[in-house]
């Protein structure tokens, strides 16, 4: 790695060193003063604001020159934010969420008696296994603030709304912990001096892997499941739109995705409350009916014919038609081939009969075991199965009215009820379309009118 290159600097936890135009508030919530300098945070996603330029302090230009000068252990450097061209800085000012540590910022010259302290010393922690030079990906580095001998550290704490709920970066005297270890994921040479042109160049850059990988199907499957379960496990702090799995059943809270800077036009992820509650009730209704039928059958009371009982139990069976698989030779010797005589395997028997119900619980229950911040969108896979249960229950109730009870009146009333229910579904869809698509400038009263539940925190600009 050389001076005056663009770098993406990451923690071991895969959060990127990040900055943006916003500054720290003049005072924090506990009335402590801040430096009012440009915010520096950690961001969990790949973003153009994660690019930094490393240069020698005595050089003013930000473009690479020949010959290249590699960075080595012990070098004194400046780390300049790629888009704002402000240098990474720290002062003897308490950090926002970790007052025992120093605040880290990008220096803004307010022409006051607070000079820049933007020099950092490079300490390579694994130079025995690499060499004295800082390498992308391979090298583990600790960045020491020259003025205070504090290390650049990921505190793990989440900033409030003014910090966009990103994670806090501090400078800390404690050097012997994993939260001060950084590495560079990617670097590029900077050859553009003009800031606006450099900004265009950075925005066009894509984060690319440092080496090609060809994953097998099972490696891809493993990586997907692992990332879903354990990615961002450090992000356990509260979030204003976070929710618990038990809240998802009743649509307690949505998620704000976007709001216009100039109006109340916004995209807010919230489900259709009619289908949502209907799906939840149908799940409990189906399980209740199943238990009722089962208890009655244990007492030799067969309320519905055997064929209909099998249909009721085997909702979604066509999705896992094991008999068809067994009867087709082309599936033999593949991982899709099962040889199950008369479905005697208890596990396969249950899964093949109750595909929708089992699918719901498989996609829902594991979230009770995950220690991370959860949002409503995590419920969507389970919700799809819930809607399938709803459709199956409607079909079964219609059978009870039309064939089992053979009542034309009840069948007609039920059909009218379903049509009325569908009308409400369409009404709610149209009602919430403005916050589904974000294409309408809403008035404050209109936003308030859409807050049907107390915890639906739709956003209203305060002008």
TrEMBL record:
<feature type="domain" description="MIR">
    <location>
        <begin position="131"/>
        <end position="187"/>
    </location>
</feature>
<keyword id="KW-1133">Transmembrane helix</keyword>
<dbReference type="InterPro" id="IPR036300">
    <property type="entry name" value="MIR_dom_sf"/>
</dbReference>
<keyword id="KW-0472">Membrane</keyword>
<feature type="transmembrane region" description="Helical">
    <location>
        <begin position="273"/>
        <end position="295"/>
    </location>
</feature>
<comment type="function">
    <text>Rt/POMT1 and tw/POMT2 function as a protein O-mannosyltransferase in association with each other to generate and maintain normal muscle development.</text>
</comment>
<keyword id="KW-0328">Glycosyltransferase</keyword>
<comment type="subunit">
    <text>Interacts with tw/POMT2.</text>
</comment>
<dbReference type="InterPro" id="IPR027005">
    <property type="entry name" value="PMT-like"/>
</dbReference>
<feature type="transmembrane region" description="Helical">
    <location>
        <begin position="413"/>
        <end position="430"/>
    </location>
</feature>
<comment type="pathway">
    <text>Protein modification; protein glycosylation.</text>
</comment>
<dbReference type="InterPro" id="IPR016093">
    <property type="entry name" value="MIR_motif"/>
</dbReference>
<keyword id="KW-0812">Transmembrane</keyword>
<keyword id="KW-0677">Repeat</keyword>
<dbReference type="InterPro" id="IPR032421">
    <property type="entry name" value="PMT_4TMC"/>
</dbReference>
<keyword id="KW-0808">Transferase</keyword>
<dbReference type="Pfam" id="PF02815">
    <property type="entry name" value="MIR"/>
</dbReference>
<dbReference type="GO" id="GO:0004169">
    <property type="term" value="F:dolichyl-phosphate-mannose-protein mannosyltransferase activity"/>
</dbReference>
<comment type="similarity">
    <text>Belongs to the glycosyltransferase 39 family.</text>
</comment>
<feature type="transmembrane region" description="Helical">
    <location>
        <begin position="382"/>
        <end position="401"/>
    </location>
</feature>
<feature type="transmembrane region" description="Helical">
    <location>
        <begin position="347"/>
        <end position="370"/>
    </location>
</feature>
<dbReference type="GO" id="GO:0005789">
    <property type="term" value="C:endoplasmic reticulum membrane"/>
</dbReference>
<feature type="domain" description="MIR">
    <location>
        <begin position="68"/>
        <end position="125"/>
    </location>
</feature>
<dbReference type="Pfam" id="PF16192">
    <property type="entry name" value="PMT_4TMC"/>
</dbReference>
<keyword id="KW-0256">Endoplasmic reticulum</keyword>
<protein>
    <recommendedName>
        <fullName>Protein O-mannosyltransferase 1</fullName>
        <ecNumber>2.4.1.109</ecNumber>
    </recommendedName>
</protein>
């Amino acid at each position: 790695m050389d001076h005056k290159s663009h770098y993406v600097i990451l923690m071991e936890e895969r959060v990127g060193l990040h900055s943006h135009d916003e500054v720290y508030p003049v005072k924090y919530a506990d009335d402590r003063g801040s430096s009012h300098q440009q915010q520096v945070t950690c961001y969990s996603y790949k973003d153009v604001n994660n690019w930094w330029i490393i240069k020698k302090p005595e050089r003013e230009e930000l473009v690479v020159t020949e010959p290249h000068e590699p960075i080595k252990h012990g070098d004194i450097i400046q780390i300049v934010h790629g888009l704002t061209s402000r240098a990474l800085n720290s002062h003897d000012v308490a950090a926002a969420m970790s007052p025992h540590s120093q605040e880290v910022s990008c220096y803004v010259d307010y022409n006051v008696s607070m000079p820049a302290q933007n020099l950092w010393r490079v300490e390579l922690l694994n130079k025995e296994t690499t060499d004295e030079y800082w390498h992308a990906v391979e090298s583990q580095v600790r960045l020491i603030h020259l003025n205070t001998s504090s290390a650049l550290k990921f505190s793990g704490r989440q900033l409030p709304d003014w910090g966009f709920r990103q994670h806090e970066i501090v400078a800390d005297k404690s050097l012997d912990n994993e939260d001060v270890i950084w590495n560079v994921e990617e670097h590029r040479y900077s050859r553009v001096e003009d800031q606006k042109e450099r900004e265009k160049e950075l925005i066009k850059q894509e984060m690319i892997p440092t080496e090609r990988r060809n994953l097998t199907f099972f490696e891809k499957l493993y990586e997907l499941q692992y990332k879903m379960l354990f990615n961002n496990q450090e992000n356990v702090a509260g979030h204003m739109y976070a929710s618990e799995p038990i809240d998802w059943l009743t649509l307690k809270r949505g998620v704000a995705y976007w709001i216009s800077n100039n109006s109340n036009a916004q995209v807010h992820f919230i489900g259709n409350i009619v289908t949502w509650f209907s799906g939840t009730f149908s799940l409990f209704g189906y399980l209740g009916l199943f238990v009722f039928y089962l208890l009655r059958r244990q007492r030799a009371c067969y309320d519905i014919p055997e064929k209909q009982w099998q249909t009721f139990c085997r909702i979604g069976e066509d999705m896992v038609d094991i008999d068809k698989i067994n009867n087709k030779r082309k599936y033999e010797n593949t991982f899709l081939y099962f040889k199950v005589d008369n479905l005697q395997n208890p596990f396969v028997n249950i899964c093949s009969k109750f595909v929708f119900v089992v699918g719901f619980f498989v996609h829902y229950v594991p979230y009770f075991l995950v220690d991370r911040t959860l949002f409503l969108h995590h419920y969507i896979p389970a919700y799809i199965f819930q809607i399938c249960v709803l459709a199956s229950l409607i079909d079964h109730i219609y059978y009870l009215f039309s064939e089992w009870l053979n009542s034309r009146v009840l069948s007609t009333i039920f059909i009218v009820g379903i049509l009325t229910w569908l009308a409400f579904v369409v009404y709610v869809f149209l009602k919430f379309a403005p916050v589904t698509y974000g294409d309408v400038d809403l008035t404050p009263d209109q936003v308030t009118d859409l807050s049907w539940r107390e915890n639906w925190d739709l956003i209203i600009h305060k002008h």
